[in-house]
Design a protein that fits this description.
Blueprint lengths: L8 H9 L12 H22 L5 H8 L3 H24 L8 H33 L6 H10 L2 H11 L3 E4 L2 E6 L2 E4 L10 H15 L1 H6 L4 H7 L8 H6 L3 H13 L16 H10 L3 H11 L5 H14 L2 H7 L15 E2 L7 E2 L2 H24 L1
Antiparallel strand pairs: 1-2, 2-3, 4-5
Length: about 375
C-alpha cells in the first residue's frame, strides 16, 4: 500500500467478513450506520491502493468472502427505502428531524416530487420511440410490455385522464416545455405533443404484426381498447391520418370474441431481490416509517455528537486529500494548471499566455516573495 494507509490488511479482512444485509426497518440504525462507515473506509482504501498501483486487495476480499451479493442487495434495499418508506416518513405529522442530514433528505424529497411529473411525461416519449421498434424487441421485453404491464390498456387510461391537461380558472392549460401553458381557444382542438405520443404508441402496439401475435385480447383488454373509439373524431383523424387504420382495427375488434388467456412459456430476467424485499415488507411501509421515526430520526443530543464524531473520524482530511487530491488552478483563468512561476514558485498557470496576462497583478508580489525567500 502507499505511504498513507487507512486500513491494515487484517482490519480490511474483518470489515469485509462482517458485511451483512439489514432489514428495511433497521436502515439508519446504529449498526447500519456503522456498516456504511466501514464501507466508506473500504472504498477509500481501495482508491488509495489503486492510486499506489497495489492491485485490488479490497475487491479480492469481497469476492473471496462472497460479499458482492450482499452489497448488491444493500443497494437495492436503499433504493426501495427511498421509494417506499421515505415518502411515508415525510408525511408523518411527528417527523421533525433534529440533524441536518434528514432535513437535507426531506428537501430532496420535495424536489423529487416536483420533478417526478415532468420525468414521467418525458418517459412517454421514450416509450413511443421504443414502440417504433417493437418488431425487433426481444421476446422477454415484448412479453413484459404486453403481458406483464399490459401497456395498451395503460395507455388508454392515460388518454382518458390526460394528466398533462387541466382547467385552471376556466382556461385550458397543457404541460409543455417544463411548465403549464394556457392554450388559446383557437388551439384547443389541436392535438398536443403528448397526446400524439400516446396515440402513436398505441398504433405501434396494436397494429404491429409481432405485437398483435403476442398480445392477448381478453374481455378486459377488449373493453378497455374499445373506449378509444370515442376519441377517434374526424378532427383527430385529420391531424393524425394513420389512426384510420387503428379505427378499422377497433371496428373489427368489436365484432370478435375475446381470446382466452395465453399460457406461453417465456424465460426472462426478473428483479428477484427487489421482488423478495417488496414481498417481505408489503403492507408494512407505515409501520417501518413509524419505527424509524422513533428509533432513527429522533436521536438525543449525545447521539448526534457521537455520530458527528464518528463521521469526522471516517472522513479524515488527509485521507480525503489523498483520495481526491486538489489540482492546481491557473491564477488567471482558473483552468487546471501544470506550470508554476519559476521565480516565486507560488502561482500556477495553464500556459505561457495566461502567465504573461497575469503578470500585471502578480509582478510586485512575485518580486517580494522571491526576495523574502532569498533573505531566509
Amino acid at each position: 500500500m502507499g505511504d498513507l494507509e487507512l486500513l491494515l490488511p487484517g482490519e480490511a479482512d474483518v470489515l469485509v467478513r462482517e458485511l451483512c444485509s439489514f432489514p428495511l426497518r433497521e436502515m439508519g440504525s446504529g449498526g447500519w450506520n456503522q456498516q456504511h462507515e466501514n464501507l466508506e473506509k473500504l472504498n477509500m482504501q481501495a482508491i488509495l491502493d489503486a492510486t499506489a498501483s497495489q492491485g485490488e486487495p479490497i475487491q479480492e476480499l469481497l469476492v473471496t468472502h462472497r460479499k458482492i451479493p450482499t452489497l448488491v442487495e444493500e443497494l437495492i434495499a436503499v433504493e426501495m427505502w427511498k421509494q417506499k418508506v421515505f415518502p411515508v416518513l415525510c408525511r408523518l405529522e411527528d417527523f421533525k428531524p433534529q440533524n441536518t442530514f434528514p432535513i437535507y433528505m426531506v428537501e430532496l424529497q420535495k424536489q423529487a416530487e416536483l420533478m417526478e411529473f415532468e420525468i414521467t411525461l418525458k418517459a412517454l416519449s421514450v416509450l413511443r420511440y421504443i414502440t417504433d421498434c417493437v418488431d425487433s424487441l426481444s421476446l422477454s421485453a415484448l412479453s413484459r410490455m404486453l403481458s406483464t404491464h399490459n401497456l395498451p390498456c395503460l395507455l388508454v387510461e392515460l388518454l382518458e385522464h390526460s394528466p398533462w391537461s387541466r382547467r385552471e380558472g376556466g382556461k385550458l392549460q397543457q404541460f409543455e416545455g417544463g411548465c403549464w401553458q394556457t392554450v388559446a381557444p383557437s388551439e384547443q382542438q389541436k392535438l398536443s405533443k403528448l397526446d400524439g405520443q400516446v396515440w402513436i404508441a398505441l398504433y405501434n402496439l396494436l397494429l404491429s404484426p409481432e405485437a398483435r401475435a403476442r398480445y392477448c385480447l381478453t374481455s378486459f383488454a377488449k373493453g378497455q381498447l374499445l373506449k378509444l373509439r370515442a376519441f377517434l373524431t374526424d378532427t383527430l383523424l385529420d391531424q393524425l391520418p394513420i389512426l384510420a387504420d387503428l379505427q378499422g382495427f377497433l371496428a373489427h375488434l368489436a365484432l370478435t370474441e375475446p381470446q382466452p388467456p395465453k399460457k406461453d412459456l417465456v424465460l426472462e430476467q426478473v428483479p428477484e431481490i427487489w421482488e423478495r424485499l417488496e414481498r417481505e415488507n408489503r403492507g408494512k411501509w407505515q409501520a417501518i416509517a413509524k419505527h424509524q421515526l422513533q428509533h432513527v430520526f429522533s436521536p438525543s443530543e449525545q447521539d448526534l455528537r457521537l455520530q458527528a464524531r464518528r463521521w469526522a473520524e471516517t472522513y479524515k482530511l488527509d485521507v480525503l486529500e489523498a483520495v481526491a487530491p486538489e489540482r492546481h488552478r491557473c491564477a488567471h483563468c482558473s483552468a487546471e494548471a501544470s506550470k508554476r512561476c519559476s521565480r516565486c514558485q507560488k502561482e500556477w498557470y495553464c500556459c505561457r499566455e495566461c502567465q504573461v496576462k497575469h503578470w500585471v497583478k502578480h509582478g510586485k508580489t512575485c518580486v517580494l516573495a522571491a526576495q523574502g525567500d532569498r533573505a531566509k
